[in-house]
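hey so i finally got around to running both of the ones u sent me last week. sorry it took forever, my laptop kept dying halfway thru and i had to restart like 3 times lol. anyway pasting them below in the order u listed, first the sequence line then the structure token line for each. didnt double check formatting much so if smth looks off just lmk and ill redo it

first one:
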Amino acid sequence: MLLCIDVGNTQTALALYPSSGEVPDDGAAVASRWDARIRTERRATADELALSVRGMLGPLLAQVDGVAALSTVPALLRELRGMLDRHFPGVARVLVEPGVRTGVPLLVDNPKEVGADRVVQALAAHQRVGGPCVVVTFGTSTTVDGVSAAGEFLGGALAAGVAVSADALAVRAAGLRPVELVAPRTVLGRSTVESMQAGLVLGAAAMVDGLVRRIGEEIAAKDTAGRGPVAVVACGGLAPVVAPECTTITHHVPDLTLQGLRLVFGRVQEAARAREERRTRR
């Protein structure tokens, strides 16, 4: 079994996938056998990370024969690497970071600035839809990224996430308090709570729809071969809240990042086998 670990700013997602050494040859979703989420502790040590992972896996730990991981928290990247080295010795692993060949060309000014999560999401989304797409992530930040028909990462837009905006509003505005992040009955809020929900949830949906349309137009302009409409793939912890209010989203894939990690692992293993075969033929 392949263990995929996505250490995000707010939560850490875990999933076990079968057939760790295989690269899926189509865009179909891969059902995970097991998945879980835990809170990300930014000061966690390698041993504490391992304790959390082992505690969540329980008896399934014995079935792990490969690990693919990433961290969007720079302070935890070193600890994640240490966890893999000390607690998963002899297990094939891939830690997605600058320098790892994911197979996704990054057509941006500084490729090292692109978060590993955005790279693997672009890979998984393109694999799923088989053409140009926009990836929308509803997490700590709301990201809207463009992927070309050839699977190239074209860049994107970053904005504060819905929960971050809600927290900031409650802290900075006197008389306002935290509210449940759900869509209100109507955009014309009839109470302070509904007004905040309309601005936060429906406002985020309107922003995403506007960015998606603009990015989609730019992608279509670059796609001289005319390889079909631009699909829009949503993921992230707050996608179930905001995505239904968007008019542009065509796919919702909750474990898109984890599927991307699985794809990268398969590609890296396949490349390693190819190098070994070339070496033995010499």
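and the second one:
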Amino acid sequence: MATLNKVTLIGYLGHDPEMRSTAAGDAVAHLAVATTETWKDKSSGEKKEATEWHRVVLYRKLAEIAGQYLKKGSLVYLEGRLQTRKWTGKDDIDRYTTEIIADDMRMLGARPAASDASNEDNAPAAPQHARQPQARYEYEDDAIPF
């Protein structure tokens, strides 16, 4: 039987993307994305909510786009897969981190307003949709669908 490792999120960024580069020079963006569930408590009748924080990692061109256009509070749609990695802390204890490796991102909500009218005409349009290519290293400067 086939298996499936797929995650779909719509949430808000808790902080600006943290940008890094790999040893090969590829861009890497780390996001903290919050999703909130709300419900009405049956016994008390009061409204309850719970927020879950998700670690999300983007690579290459998708990371560059996130770094350029996403800010704290941005509403974003993400698709990807779960991945757990093992690392050793400063205290020499093995630790595990589970992250979402995103290969599709869509910026939701309104585009940011330009600071003045002169910038409006010259500012590049923010892409509303970006998808990471499936082949890891075949990506060069292909057009990103907008």
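quick thing i noticed on the 2nd:
Residues 60-69 form the longest helix (10 residues).
anyway thats it, ttyl
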